[in-house]
Structure formats: structure tokens, C-alpha cells
Amino acid sequence: MGPAARLAALLAVLAFRAGDPAEVAARGDTFSALTSVARALAPERRLLGLLRRYLRGEEARLRDLTRFYHKVLSLHEDSATPVSNPLLAFTLIKRLQSDWKNVVHSLEASENIRALKDGYERVEQDLPAFEDLEGAARALMRLQDVYMLNVKGLARGVFQRVTGSAVTDLYSPRRLFSLTGDDCFQVGKVAYDMGDYYHAIPWLEEAVSLFRGSYGEWKTEDEASLEDALDHLAFAYFQAGNVLCALNLSREFLLYSPDNKRVARNVLKYEKLLAESPNQAVAETVMQRPNVPHLQTRDTYEGLCQTLGSQPTHYRIPSLYCSYETSSSPYLLLQPVRKEVIHLEPYVVLYHDFVSDAEAQTIRGLAEPWLQRSVVASGEKQLPVEYRISKSAWLKDTVDPVLVTLDHRIAALTGLDVQPPYAEYLQVVNYGIGGHYEPHFDHATSPSSPLYRMNSGNRVATFMIYLSSVEAGGATAFIYGNFSVPVVKNAALFWWNLHRSGEGDGDTLHAACPVLWPTSGYTSMDRNSADPAARDLKTKVLAERSWRSPLAFQRSQKSKTRVREEKGEQASGGGPCQHCLFLANGRQGSGL
């Protein structure tokens, strides 16, 4: 699976699960779906209400303390106040014996903070876990890598790609939001704890820079300090082989915390190492990005995510064309679909405005309560993995008439039977922070695949509908085809996963590029279709379905042959072309 820009992914496990939707959603990871991240706003609003009440209580308490202060101060400022006055003498003794004790030991402050803590504990179960913080930090690093983003720019709220001396703005938010030193420290520390000093060093460097600029201005919410950032950055540089930087940072640390014996010992160690190997003082350390063993096509994948690949324009290749598609279906004769042939091998087609805004919204609403962390097959188990970050759910056709209408439309367009057991249920996917799905096949590539053990058939084709738009990122990249397709809201992307022989098409290796700036998080819905003999077809609309009928497979292959025979007869620049959203120069300007 993998509609490239799906920000919302619902992939359950092959059927609706029983249970309370709220409980199902609660089991998911907050960072992995934009809907979950948005849901986290509610508990923070509750915390803001608690803090507002606390501040009001504290303001009232401080006003009363200020009143007491000025009352006593006025007595001391009045030089004419005779202590011989028995009333004033009495009040002086009372203040010293009783009033000041009540002021100092007042329970009002502790009662205010206790109420705040109690309220926090009631909300705490609804807050993201530490694993979410780690996942969100890794997502920022993923965006940093795939789109070559500059960490210093990210800290300022600017999304810039830096290649050598060239700086390119990838996306300009309407409102800039900058990170604090503590924010940058937390990202760097996640990488540091993983032993990933390639990512830890630039984030910790930015943390040190920001902490230096605000040194002495302690913020209540901060967990880290300049000393913490210097300490971690020094050791990260040492682990990376830059002893001189480690020494200089450790010496700076001792300026702020001279009694720290551990860092003092480190300084002696670094000085000894440099004395024994003077060349280390001038050697420039080259940081190597950690390798991802399972992703051998990383450079191609990331290049396609960054540039949309080396896609030719329709005007240079006449066999890439636009047309009104009817598939000889009475349904489509009355309402033809605008088709754009994106690529020939693999054969990939984009159907514009396949669903309406209202239909997309309905599907999103139906799926959202059932979203769970997306998983992949690992032996006999279904497991969440780092190379697929999203949430997904499966929708049965019986859930809503909109899905029945959608099935009829897909069947009319593809000639495939979309009813189970010939097709999978619709799968809806929602992507979270930096949500992605690294290069993968939709069809099974091994006889040991669970698809075969379940006798469900291999996936013949994929039909993917984009249920929302994205501001930046999220393209679907076809690795061996060397092209990528940006998200086109309400459009559907279709391709065949198998050759006519039933063998898998290796050119369909594809990926969902990380979402840089989502809108609603939903970008596609998949439907898969399969054949027991040819083993499985997949359609994606940010929900997916698979067809499994031998007859459907034969019809689909005939349709495929007919489409390829027709392509030479279609004229580039025909009527439908002026309506296509993903053409020629426009293609180069879409996405990233």
C-alpha cells in the first residue's frame, strides 16, 4: 500500500473491530496521525483552563500580600508614629508574633498549586506518552533528511533546503513559529540517546546557541539548560571523533558549573588525547548519516520526493495524454471521468475529481473513530514499524451509502468486481508528523506472504483516492519508474501491480513521501482487488480494496490492453487536457 501523500491512514486488520471507537483510537500513537495530534489540543485546552484558575488565585493572593506589605511599610515610613501608643505597640507585637507567621506559612499558595496538580493528574491519561515525543522528534529528523532541511532554519520556523551555498524555500508558513533552546535540545537528545550523533549534533548546537542568547532567563517549562546542552554536545562531538570541539565545549561548561568533577575529568582526558595525537586538533570530522539497511533505494526515493522525479511533459511524449474516460460503461457515459495518463511502464493513471468534497469528508468522518496505528506483516504478526508512520482503518461497504456509490464508480471505471471476497474493504489512511511509507510493493513478493496463507489472492492493482490536499510533501514516488505524483485532492491514482502472467511488476515499487505540511492529514484511500489465481488487486483511495475474481482479472487485463492500444490514437492537448491539474509545466510546479 502506500498512497504517497496520505496524511490519514486507516488500516485496521481486515475487518471492523468490535468495541468503543474512542477506546480503539486511544490505543494508537498520537504522533502517527494528524487526527490524533489535533485531538491532543483538547486536553491542552483543559490544562489552560486549570492554569487560568491557578493564575487568578495567585493574583488574588499576591494582591492581598501587596496590601499587607504596604500597610506595614506605611507604619515604618511614618516617623511620627509613636511606639508609645499602646494600640500601635500592641499591633506591632501581634504582627511579629502572629501576622507574619500566618503570611509566611499561609496554605493558600499550596492550595492553589495543589488544585493545579490535581487537575493535571485528571488530564494526564489523555496526554501523549513519552514515546510520542520520541516519534515526533524522529519525524522532524526524517523531514530534515528527506527534504534536506536546514536545522537552523527549522528552529526559526523556516522550511529551507540547503545544498552547498544554495538556499531554497520549500514552504513558507503564514505564521512563523520558532523553537526554543529546550525544544531543540529535546530533538537532539532523542538522537543522542539512539547513538545518532549525525542528527544530535546540529540540533544540540542550535540548542546551545539559543540557550546562550537567553542565559539567565530561566523558563519554568524548560527541562534543560545551557549546561545540559553543552554537556551532551561535548560528548556527541567526542563520540564523532572531534576531540577539540569536545574539549572547548567542556571548558565552557565548567565556566557555568566549575564544581562538576565528571566534566573536569573529561577535560583532562580530552587534553591528554590531543597531546598524544596533535593531528586531532586540526582534523575535520566528516559526519556520516546513519544507514538504513532495509532502504537500499534511499537516494532515488528522496530525490523523487524532493523534485518530483524526471517526469517528461505531455507535449514531448504524445502517448501521455488526457481524455474523458467512459470504459464503455453506461454509468460513465452519463458522467465521464477525466483521465490523465501519467506513465506507461508502469502504467499509472490519474483520474481527476473522482470524488466530491462532500464524499471525501464523509469517508474521513466514517474512518476517524476507527483509526489505529498502521502495521506491516512480519512473519505471523502485524507490527508497527518506523518505515511506515500513519494510522489506518478498514471500512465495509455497508457502513454508508456513499461507499456503495463509490464502489459502483470504481467498478464501472476498472471493470473489476469490488465486492468481497473479490476485493478488500476500503482502507483509509491518515498520516501524522512527517508521516510516510518507505519504498514497498502493494503485491506480495514472497510465497510465504500471509496473503497466500489466507487464500485471499495477490493484489492485481491499486486504486488510490486522495481525500485531502497537502501544502507540501506527501508525493507518491515510483522508485524504478523514476517519477513521482504529487497529491491532487479528490483525484484517484490507479496502477497495475501484476503483469498479465500474474508475476509482480517490479517497476511498481513505490513510496509515500513524508508529509511536510499537511492540511487534514488525509491524502488517500485505498481499495485492493485480487484474483485467487493471479493473487490480488489493490485500489487505494486513502482507503484500499482488493479484487479476487478470475473473471475480473481477465476483464482488467483486457481493459489494460485496450487502453494501451488506444493511447496512440489520442491527441495531446485535446479538450480534457485543459482541465487536467497535473500537466506539463504545472506538474513541475506541484508539490516539492
UniProtKB/TrEMBL annotation:
What's the short name of a Pfam family annotated to this entry?
2OG-FeII_Oxy_3
Query: So which domain of life are we looking at?
Result: Eukaryota
The record's SMART domains line, in alphabetical order, gives:
P4Hc (SM00702)
SUPFAM superfamilies according to UniProt? TPR-like
Q: Which Gene3D superfamilies match?
A: 6.10.140.1460, q2cbj1_9rhob like domain, Tetratricopeptide repeat domain
> Which cofactor names does the annotation list?
L-ascorbate
Signal sequence, start to end: 1-21
Quote the subcellular location field of this record: Endoplasmic reticulum lumen
The answer to keyword Cell cycle applying to this record is: no
* The entry's keywords: Dioxygenase, Endoplasmic reticulum, Glycoprotein, Iron, Metal-binding, Oxidoreductase, Signal, TPR repeat, Vitamin C
InterPro entries listed in its UniProt record: Oxoglu/Fe-dep_dioxygenase_dom, P4H_N, P4HA-like, Pro_4_hyd_alph, Pro_4_hyd_alph_FE2OG_OXY, TPR-like_helical_dom_sf, TPR_P4H
Disordered, as annotated region: 553-574
The Fe2OG dioxygenase domain, residue ranges = 422-538
EC numbers, comma separated: 1.14.11.2
Q: What class of enzyme is it?
A: oxidoreductase
Family to which the UniProt record says this protein belongs:
Belongs to the P4HA family.
Chain's role: Catalyzes the post-translational formation of 4-hydroxyproline in -Xaa-Pro-Gly- sequences in collagens and other proteins.
From the Swiss-Prot or TrEMBL record, give the protein name.
procollagen-proline 4-dioxygenase
What organism does this protein naturally occur in? Bos indicus (Zebu)
Upper classification of the source organism reads: Eukaryota, Metazoa, Chordata, Craniata, Vertebrata
